[in-house]
Amino acid sequence: RLMQLEDQLEPLPHNSAESLSWLRDPTLPGPKIRPLAPLLQLWGHVFAGGPRLPRLKTLMPRTAGLCFKHVLLPPRACAGSLLTRSWRDGGHRYEPKAVGFTGLILEKFGLARRDISKVARDAPLRVTVEVRDARTAHNGRWFDGGSISRLSIELAKRLHAEVRTEDFGGLPMRDQLARAAETDILMGIHGSALVHLMFLPLGSGIIELTRSPTPMKGSAPENTFVSMAKWMGMQYSYVLFKVVPPNRFVTFSQSAVVAAAMDMAKDIRSRHS
């Protein structure tokens, strides 16, 4: 999805547009950005190995132009676009530039990364369980409502936490980022919604439900979120899941999720003021 930010945002600096020479229209003066359709074509080729998007004829005619002050092109993480498919053992993987860049995205939406060191020690933690249903689970996997209800009650009790179940797929983008910025521990099935971990506070945690143990040596889609968590200076844990046919419900060990969350909560609270 392409997201145009509000008009009141300041335009890109001249040198930023100049540095993106492949987006610049040489026939026009100044750092003008080419229309939307070429960007879509570029996105498809770079991030998906070939054309994946239509020209959107209903949006703009071939002869028209559409310019943006700011635009986000969400890459396909599973295609390795974020360099997170590959895993290397050892070494310090924290990437301050990644933190700074995602902080700029928050700022453009009028948000800020929360500093958990300024949170009162006795304040309840904020846990977000990212859910999917048959409407938004494009990979055909979703939670049984009863199991999530039981898990939420257990997490709230054991962690002294406010637990919210949220389907980011049904929210506007700014609301999605705001929910992530408020979250101490994010849990969800391996998939696109977990990319929101990049907007969590530093030191927070992510619990990924996945089919295979992570990380895997070498290159694999399963490495995407554990790598990203390490980049962002966040805690990471995984819990294996199974898919139960014919309803495609995901089953997992709730006790394993609670145990992982309790370990993360202990570390997060140690950072509170």
TrEMBL record:
Q: Which Pfam families match?
A: Glyco_transf_61 (PF04577)
Task: Name the source's superkingdom.
Answer: Eukaryota
Decide whether keyword Signal is in the record: yes
Catalysed reaction, written as an equation = L-threonyl-[protein] + UDP-N-acetyl-alpha-D-glucosamine = 3-O-(N-acetyl-beta-D-glucosaminyl)-L-threonyl-[protein] + UDP + H(+); L-seryl-[protein] + UDP-N-acetyl-alpha-D-glucosamine = 3-O-(N-acetyl-beta-D-glucosaminyl)-L-seryl-[protein] + UDP + H(+)
Give the Enzyme Commission number. 2.4.1.255
Q: Where is the Glycosyltransferase 61 catalytic domain?
A: 155-207
Q: Which GO terms describe its molecular function?
A: protein O-acetylglucosaminyltransferase activity
* Keyword Glycosyltransferase (UniProt): yes
What's in the keyword line of the UniProt record? Endoplasmic reticulum, Glycoprotein, Glycosyltransferase, Signal, Transferase
Could you tell me what this protein is called? EGF domain-specific O-linked N-acetylglucosamine transferase
